[in-house]
Amino acid sequence: MGRDYDELGLKVGLEIHQQLDTKKLFCDCNSELVEEEGLEVIRDLRPTESELGEVDEAALMEAQKELKFRYQAPESSSCLVELDEEPPQGPDEEALDLALTMALYTESDIVDEIAFMRKIVIDGSNTTGFQRTALIATDGTLEVDGKQIGIPTMCLEEDAARSIEEKKDEKVYRLDRLGIPLVEIATDPDMTSPEEAKEVAQNIGGLFRGTRKVKRGIGSIREDLNVSVEEGARVEMKGVQELDMIPEYVEKEVERQLDLLDIKETLESREAEVDDKIYDVTESFEKCESGIIRSNLDAGKGVYAAKLTGFDGQLRGEEGEALLGPELAEYAKKTGVEGIFHSDELPKYGIEEEEIGSVEKELGLHEKDAFALVTAREKKAEEALRKVIERAKMSLEGVPEETRQARPDGTTVFMRPLAGEARMYPETDIPPKYVDEKKLEKLKDQLPERPGKKIERFQQEYGLNEQQSEQLFKKGYDVLFEDCLKRCSDPSVVANTFLHTFPDLQKEGYDTEKIKKEELFDVLQRYDSGGFAKEGIPELLKEIIDGKSVGEAVKSVGLESVDEEDIREVIIEVIEDRIDFVEEREMGAIGPLMGVVMEDLKGKADGEKVSKVLREEIQKRIG
Hints:
Helix content is 39%, strand content 20%. By secondary structure, it is of the alpha+beta class. The protein has 4 domains: 5-266 and 421-426, no CATH class; 273-395, GAD-like domain (Gyrase A, domain 2), CATH 3.30.1360.30; 451-557, no CATH class; 564-622. Strands 1, 4, 6, 7, 8, 11, 12, 13, 18, 19 and 20 form an 11-stranded mixed beta sheet that branches. The chain has a 4-stranded mixed beta sheet with strand order 2-3-10-9, with no helix packed on it. A 4-stranded antiparallel beta sheet has the order 14-15-17-16, with helices on both faces.
């Protein structure tokens, strides 16, 4: 976007959460996601005080929603521990070893005693109302492109339940994911550009993959971003799942914070203010034709307003771009209303100038003033407008500290206030665990290869160039690449599959995540044993993505290998059909005709063999 991020004072920190490929953290259940629903249990959750007697603000906001939670407990991947009907076991030794391995790799100070804490979480994602988490190490570092990135904390924790469905007054979760071990690595805000944040995340992901004991696929690694600019505030963005999207999330958050700082400046110049009074303006809408308002009035509900002195034009810009209005609406929605109306977007939605003028008169508005409306029952409307007023007051200060949920398009939406220490208290069901020095020495001898060394080795050992080696690492295929080479002896074919075939399939709309590791191994093994040419791999993978087994895919595509005489027959036919072109271009016809021949052979022949025969047959015709 051409921004000078140094001048803006951009700071980015990361929290990387990686699922481990072990048993669950506090029981012997398999850590696999399943399709079965299993037993259903309904629960209510309430906030509790921390050990200091404080209640976390984020937990209070969740409690205000008054939701019920329905839990599906599939027998194959959950037990009484996940249902909070049995005390936790463990922690799992293998998961603990992996966390300690990552701590050693980043040269962190490992704690002498590992003690689990309870972190209050009452959004329903945990049946207990808290998440168990343990500090493993502090004060580590990671070198990325010659720069030291601080790692203040590393934790081992349990993953949350999997969200299945969200209704107006109920959330449905499945317990298959609850309890899967996670290692959380938090960095200092040492990154000063969007691309650098992505680079650091790639390096941390590479360290995890090097252990060969982490899960892969969408949702198995999640990044939370902490972003701020000069005069802005730390904003946490949760749930970023694609590394390539990290720069876009950072750029859009920078833009959002700069917009909020501009709004603050405008409001200051207008001496804007927000009072706490909520106005009942139902009478102004008695003849309103808006469908939403009409249906609410007919149901005995009302219309209520908040006065925003000096806010005109700051809720939505002149070009229609979203500014402060959506931020106010996000806060209001946390109380259960569907949204708000505000004066910058009216007249619209069936609300006419007559109703707008009536509200302005009742609120005593002047030229630069604005208002927000909520239609609901009085108590609910007041709760929603209190949140609108709260958020509007924050805009007078600039950028509020908060937690926001990442959306797939790179934008974010308000989740809750930034959580504080008040949500932590000791875990009483799991005794502290002392760290064994002998174990640490053993783990030191098994540390994964550093990214730079791995990239260098790929070039020396497999004959790849520097760009191929770096891309395999950055795209997360480095470990799988070497696993594939145990089945296929051609490194260039395996690298090409990841770096070219996969992206090409994705551009055509194929979901390469559907290709199971074992299926890919089978395809490459069949190619390596001469079952078909490398050109047939893309078509074969398409069939597998569409649901066929490897064997079925081979039959469907017709990838029985052809001999040289069969290839020559196809080539002769292609040349004879285009003899004028061949006589005109002579040997220059090889390139254009290769594509035609390969298309006709549909991956049944190797490209080098086809090129050899094509050259011979063209040479015959031009003497």
